[in-house]
Structure formats: structure tokens, C-alpha cells
Model the fold of this input.
Amino acid sequence: MVIEPISHVFMAFMDIFLDALPFMILGVLLSTIVENFIPEGVIQRMTPKHPLGGVLFACVLGIMFPLCECGMIPFVRRLMRKGMPVYIAVIFILVGPILNPIVFASTWMAFRDNPAMAYSRMGLTFGVALVIGFLLTRFLKSNPLRHPIEPAAASLTRHNHTHGSQHIDQHDHHHGHVHDHDHDHKHDHSHAHDHSHNHKHHDHGHDHHGHNHAHGDSQLMTMVSHGSSELFEMSKYLMLGALLTALIQTFVAQDSLSAIGQGAFISHVFMMGFAYLLSLCSTTDAFVAVSFAKSFSPGSLLAFLVFGPMIDVKSTLMMLSIFKARFVLTISIVVAMTVLSGSLLFMHFFLA
Done:
């Protein structure tokens, strides 16, 4: 009957989605707080000069700013405007969505029967950060940015200069207007000027009160808008991933999945490609991965959990908005090779 498969798909979809929903909401809440209340200048003052310190700092940023990859690119763009080096920004983009307490907690909860998966995920991610950091500091010679990112100080200087020029133009225009009046009307003009001055003074106090009120409303609306848009953006990817997973579990024969999933090499490649296409959020992908635990090896699930948040469809498109296509392709290949090698090693030594 048709009703039975549909019911199975719906139940599998709801199990995955409802397990992941609390962690997704928590991630959105923290992302909104970071977006609106953390000064970006703090990051510049804390950035180390030594490359190894920079790699460690990029990893620590994930704990300080637990952002999903959906909000990572705009945040990193602002940090680079404040003076963050490119190699630290790239590492933060790759490992920041994984090396944070929310992702660790969600992975731990999803793999309650195998908590070593949560520790392995953090360990392999840190290993990828070390490899990428070493390669970038060693071999990156040219600027990988598509367009130069103007420092915030230069932008502020240009804004002040433009504002000052406009103020001078307005002042000159007002001065010319007064000079053209006849001397016979000097007394009347002065009286009108005083009246106008008093009127503006009272209006200014009223506008100042309205400005504070509008500023508070604007900040609140910005927070609500940021949180709701990110929640919508994350939830649609989660629902798509959960639906595809439920369809695969329902209509793909378990024998076929087991044949792929237990392969020493092909299972890792398959799950990495699967993670790239699903484009799940790092706070929720563990609940999708655990649903394949009976068919796929732990090492292949680890590859899914590490590669997906680093390189997937949406993160590739977002990185192409900042970096040159050749640089993004090179980084993607290096990350894929490193995750594949690392997941095989973890499978042999820690997850056997």
C-alpha cells in the first residue's frame, strides 16, 4: 500500500527534525547575540602575530562565537575589515562552525551510545585546522580576495570627509543667502532669524527624544529580523536534509546501503559527497548522521560530520563571494583530502 511508505517517511522526518530543532534555535539565539552586542574591534586586538598562535586563535574563536556556517561569511568579512589576516579568517570559516560547545553537545546527544564520535569530531576538525593553517602560511603568496576589502578606518575617514564637505557646502549656501538681503530690511531679518532659532531649538529636543526611541526600536527589529531570517535559512536546509534522509531510509534497500557503508574507502567518499549536497547546519547534522549508524561505518559518519560543515553547496557559494574561484577550489580539494585521510586514521585507531 502507498500509505505505509508515506507514513514511514513522515515518522522518520519528524524524528530527525524534532531532535535537531532545540539545538538549531539555541544556535540562532547565540548568533543573534553575537551579531548585535560583540564589538568587532576586540578581535583585532586579540589576534596573535605568530602563525601557530593564529591557528589556535581561529579555533578558539569557534568557542567564543558559536556561529553556524550560514552567518559565518558576513561576520568574517567584518573581521577582515578590522584587520584580521586572511589565513585566520579562512580557518575560522572552516572550523568555526564545528569547534563550538553547541555542536559538541548536539553530537554528544545524537551519539549517546558512542560518545567517542563527539571527541573524534572535535579532534579531526582541529587537525584539519593545523594542516590548512600550515599550508596557508607557507604557500599563500598572492591575495586570494575577489575584491579588496577596505579597512574600517579608511571607510570612516572617507565618510567624515564627505560629511564635512556637505556641511561646508550648506554653510556657504546659507551665508550667501544672508548676504543678498537689502540693508533696509536688516532689523526684520534679524527678528525672523531669532524666531527661527528658538523654534528649531524646541524641535531639536523633541527630535532627540524621538531618535532614542527609534534607535531602540530599530535595534530590536534588527535582532528579530536577523534571528528569524537565520532560523528560516537553517530550518529549510534541515527539513530538506531530513526529508532526503527519510526517503533514502524508506525507499533504498538496506542491503545496498550496507554494501556501500561498510566499504573501507567508498563509504567515506559517499558520505562526504552526501554531506556536500545536503548542506546541513553543523548544529543539526549529527541527528541525520546517526540515522545511518546501522548501515555506515563510524569512520564514514565522522567524515560526514567534519567535511559537511566545512565545504558544502551553500558555503562554497558564500566563499566565492569573497575569495577567488581558484582559491576556493584549492581549499576544497585540500580539505577533502585531509578529512578523508583523517577519518580513515580515526577509524583505525579510535573508532574501531
User: Anything to note?
Assistant: Confidence is low (pLDDT under 50) at residues 152-208. The radius of gyration is 27 Å. The chain is about 80% helix and 0% strand.
